[in-house]
Amino acid sequence: MTSFQLTRTLDEHAADSALRSDVSEGLGHTPKVLPPKWFYDARGSELFEEITRLPEYYPTRAEREILLERAGEIAAASGARTLVELGSGSSEKTRHLIEAMPALDMYVPVDVSESALRGAADTLLAEHPGLRVHALLADFTRALRLPDSPGPRLVVFLGGTIGNLLPPERAVFLASVRAMLSPGDALLMGTDLVKDESVLVAAYDDASGVTAEFNKNVLAVVNRELDADFHTADFEHVALWNREQEWIEMRLRARSELVVKVRALDLVVPFAAGEEILTEVSAKFRQEGVRKELAAAGLELTQWWTDTGGRFALSLSVAEGPLG
Predict the structure, then answer these.
(1) What is the pTM of this model?
(2) 3-class DSSP state of 106
């Protein structure tokens, strides 16, 4: 007997309200900012899938290599009976873990896309008839209330998405994850590692221009949803390595002086020639830095796995004693 349940914590207008707020604040900010979550409409998701297959973009392949090689160790180390995935999407990579967890009772995917949650659940339940799936339609950057489920729990946060958060945001996020966990529960987190600048920049500025199109897709989203008049040809895709902060920055640079109207917000946005919109920060990590950030949230790093090239890491950290 299969079991699927979906709990909605986002109302139908949540995405529209968030987009309006982010665009109004971000384009009024100096420097201008648009959050990377707005890349991912249907077209943006297609482009990102294409990016993951590019020769320059190694993180997806490197993380999959670790999961395929280490899924059994991860399952044994966590002892998990409940698997919670933040930003689950298609749940494709998580299947490797689920297959290595014969004692798994419940899978809790968390995503803002109801269609992605239902599609992934249909596939997983067909493959694992005894599994229970309790999906949460929710924004994982906000505090979550997990459904009642057997422990131990393993929360997984894959893809290096933690790097899209600035250090203060990471601290808040990791503390919120710790608050979900009981002592002995664990977090499996993907982190892209610091490496040669040329390798990093190429991963975000591929020769075929797919990442450039992906970056500019945020403008298409604003145009469609908020009746704006951005012309993507007016902006140049920029990817650079910030050595001091050890992160990649993706930007859109105005090719000339111009003015954009966002009619739904009654907003007029002037751009100077060369002015940029910061669209994504993607931090790269070192093991000791990850250990310190986890410890500050009350999580103890216990396992660290990398791919054979040492490009990407999965870390397993365990919730320490009761929260103070």
Answers:
(1) 0.94
(2) strand
